[in-house]
Amino acid sequence: MDFEFNEEQKMFREAVKDFASREVAPLVDEAEANESCPAELFTKMGKLGYLCPGYPAEYGGGGLGESGTCIMVEELARVCSGITSGLMVQSGLATYPILSHGSEEQKQRFLVPAVNGDKIAAYGLTEPNAGSDAAAIETSAKRDGDYYIINGSKIYITNGTICDFVTLAVSTDKSQGSRGISTIVVEKGTTGFSASKISKLGHHSADTAELVFEDCWVPATNLIGEEGRGYKYMLESLNSARISHAARSLGLAQAAYEASLEYAKERTQFGQPIGQFQTIAFKLANMATEIEAARWLIYRVAWLYDQGDECRKEAPMAKVFASDLAIRLAEEAMRIHAGAGYMAESRVHRYFRDAILYHTTEGTTEIQNLIISRELGL
Ligand SMILES: Cc1cc2nc3c(=O)[nH]c(=O)nc-3n(C[C@H](O)[C@H](O)[C@H](O)COP(=O)(O)OP(=O)(O)OC[C@H]3O[C@@H](n4cnc5c(N)ncnc54)[C@H](O)[C@@H]3O)c2cc1C
After folding, report:
1. Which residue from 14, 17, 44, 290 has the highest number of Cβ atoms inside 10 Å of its Cβ?
2. Ligand 1 test: best mutation among 127, 356, 361, 370, most atoms within 8 Å of CB?
């Protein structure tokens, strides 16, 4: 057994950590206030090779696998989960189907510019009537000669208004249910495609949108892989995305812990730092212990995935464990900061609002538990 990150992974972590504190942290307050994701980060990170660290070097990636993606996501989420969510859609859900099933021409046209940060990508699956029940999507794509005509809408789409293209799940044959779902890339500027921003409780620095497709003609050459295989592609993408989602939760949990530790040392009540009260000290001890446990669970699953294991049970386990942890620790941080934490300008206030989302994205906690229990034979 070897519990050490290798030299390349350590160097990558240091580089991303440095980037996050120098380039991302100064943008957070403005991005949160404006409810927008700083698009320039895609370009900066792409040029440095930080945007898709898990992808093969031949397409501009870092060749560091899922472990590399987790390192990047964890360090960024320690600074801001909202901004991280936009960046990780780019490094996973929106591009993974193209990497795995796209033609070489599609990879050069969509994947490489996304990896380099020249294009921003979004992933459109969820609809008003199809959330957890993704096979129920109604957005249709009807073939007409060399085109598909797309009609329907998508909701809660990250990067929706800032994207250059969306990797879209569509129904090409409703009668086939999940076997009638396909994946197609729709580019910004295509007639009939529009996006409008949605406001939300947390993750203010992530762009979230409703997408509408009205008689939107898309070249058939934008179909990814085979018609009717889109549901399978989606399951594959979500599986790896769950591992990096767990790393995002870990980053936020770490941030909540660090802020609490600092505050416990500086805030004085009854003539002593509050960290000297056993109740607060034990909270911090538990936080540190749980973070340690989560880190090794997540990186073990990422390592397993990089060895070629599908991690059908382990990926949702990591996601559930880490999202529960982040939500709990964000609440603990609020309790340790008390009134100061509740104020709008407080960092922990943001962690609290952001963490609660983790039960929902990349499949809800209930759906993860459903997958895990099926894998257990139940
Ligand atoms: C900020 C944000 C960003 C997002 N970004 C994207 C994105 O970029 N692209 C995208 O496609 N989607 C995105 N989503 C959508 C997200 O993936 C969905 O919200 C999620 O899959 C849940 O769907 P739903 O909200 O419709 O909930 P529902 O599916 O309606 O679930 C409601 C409740 O019922 C429970 N439930 C449902 N079915 C079952 C079942 N079979 N057994 C037990 N319990 C069940 C759920 O767990 C949940 O508690 C985003 C959502 C948010 C909030």
Report:
1. 290
2. 361
